[in-house]
Amino acid sequence: MLALLAGSTSHLSFKIKHRFHLSQLSRTPFHPIHQASPYTRTTTMDETYTQLPLRMDPSSKAISSTIADDSNAALQDELVALNQLHRSVVGLESAVPPPPVPVNPKRSAQINKLRESGNASFRKGSYADAIRMYTFGLEMALGRPPWEPAGLVRDEVAGLYANRAQAYMAMQSWAEAMVDAGTSVEMKRVGNAKGWWRRGKCLLEMGRLDEAKDWVGRALEFEGNEPDLVALMKEIENLMERREEKDRIEYGEDPKVMANLLRLRVVAAPRCYSFHQRALQPSMIAS
User: Fold this and answer.
1) What is the reported pLDDT for 99?
2) In 3D, which of 133, 111, 113 has the Cα closest to residue 122?
3) Closest CA to 76 of 92, 64, 90
């Protein structure tokens, strides 16, 4: 990839705080591209450029900067991304770059296999092993090359995060499950009732009823009257009514006392007190 770029370097630039020209990229081993001071700037029209000395390793073709100070962290990040893209292209089985929207069938098969292995472990009650399989699947899905379809990656990641959330829930690791379920919803908002339900359930189990009600309310806007979400909303509302009744018995009807109590609940957000430790609904089992 870098060899191709080197042949047409007039189009190779990095847009960070300023645009870095590599118009004099050389194939000479470790030969600086530009000998000017790293603070030299030239202005043409309305553009400002900072020219930096870069070099290319003759064996790996990796591009690096001869300036190692922290002031060039943004440039270093861009070079890391470029070198990673180069390695991805070099690692292809074919000698030419792939078409615009290819899908690697081997990677897809491996991701599916890891998901099925995680599901099998979950059904056996080996929740830690299921989490491990889902994590491996996530790493493979997130490691797809940048030219593969983003929609495919989002679907794969959404399902794997939702399944891993379910495994955490089975271990009563509510905080971890809440984060995974929320990430699943961020990846896929519509058609992801399981992700919405699982985060709402975690919030309920953690005693954060107000947040749970708001979350499930949003879920119903995206998923319509999905039965499990409707049932979860009723459960949350019943628990909130019971809590309010208990508060009235203990603290009376003083509106100031009730307002302070509500504010403390919102601020403190009890970390965990569990309601109804019962088996999870069959329709919510990992799939």
Assistant:
1) 62
2) 133
3) 64
- Contact between 284 and 166 under an 8 Å Cβ cutoff? The reply is yes
How many H-runs (helices) and E-runs (strands) does the chain carry?
10, 6
Token duo for residue 116: 């099925």
Q: Domains in the chain, ordered, with CATH?
A: 2-90 (no CATH), 105-247 (1.25.40.10)
- Residue 66: per-residue pLDDT: 77
Amino acid 265: pLDDT: 54
Mean pLDDT for back-to-back runs of 10 residues, the chain (287 residues): 38 38 40 43 54 81 77 80 83 64 85 97 96 96 87 94 97 96 95 96 94 95 93 94 79 59 49 35 40
Neighbours of 32 (CB within 10 A): 15
What sign does the CA torsion over 138, 144, 146, 150 have? Answer: negative
